[in-house]
What we know:
Layout: E1 4-9, H1 19-26, H2 32-40, E2 44-46, E3 49-50, E4 62-66, E5 82-86, E6 90-95, H3 112-119, E7 144-150, H4 153-164, E8 169-177, E9 184-187, E10 190-193, E11 201-204, E12 214-215, E13 219-226, E14 230-237, H5 244-251, H6 265-269, E15 279-287, E16 293-297, H7 302-309
Parallel strand pairs: 7-15
Antiparallel strand pairs: 1-4, 2-3, 2-4, 5-6, 6-7, 8-14, 8-15, 9-13, 10-11, 10-12, 13-14, 15-16
Amino acid sequence: MNKVTKTIHITANNHGQRLDKFLADFDLEKSRAAWQKLIKSGKVLVNDNATEANYSIKTADKIEILKEDLPVERAMSVPDIKIIYEDENVIVIDKPIDVVAQRTETSDAPAVTDFLENHFPAIKKVGEDEQRSGIVHRLDKDTSGIMIAAKNQEAFEFLKDRFKKREVQKLYTALVYGKVEPEKGEIDFAIGRNPKSPCKQTIVRNPDTSTVKCRVARTLYRTIKSSEDYSLLEVELKTGRMHQIRVHMKAIGHPVVGDPKYATPKLLQSTPGLKRQFLHASELKITLPDGKKGIFHSELPNDLRSFLKKHSDLD
């Protein structure tokens, strides 16, 4: 029997919406296309029955989301990942680029979960589902830097609670196009899925009147160095929304250098030597399950350092 992972009861506010659109707005981590695939495979039930993606939901409908099938076993390419810190409860790693956080059905890219399961097989049972393998937060495939994972369920719940309560300090190093002024500031636009391009996020300036489902987002930044063409920033995430730094920097007119999703083609053409976005998770401060204060650092990887060296005013 398929396990129900989530049950949603529809209220009058959502009456008449398409099922796939409602679910995409409900869970911002899955695209509308991903929900359509799950609905088609029978993993979404409405009033105990499978249905179509274009079904118009009604007040009092019961939507049940069933446990997804595990991805088909594939030849696992275990990425080479540096361990920064490890104890009986947690493991802190320095994620390289070209590595996704978790395995997916649509990508053959190596995953952090592959490394974690190979290093500590018992971690496969840690988390909210069998695909999480202890992961409590994510980095984009082409964002490098610090990640922390739990090695047991108690530690997972503890870390998850720290992130939920925003008791974690996450610092990133980012290079953006143009000279950022003021040199220090806060960006607090809400963020939601871009209705015109579901694989992207967008800012929402008026959440109370917008039809785009969004969440509060806060980003702090300060300039480390700058020139007329670039600004090297230290960025602190006060919330953890998908693509938050990338979307917020674009919103103030300074996209992250090399960002294929949010920088314009013209800007990307001006930096051909960089093959990914210049964004690195450089520091993490968090209370660990044993009560100790963890402060972890990661140096800029070689590709980002090499790019800076080509610009002597930033190196």
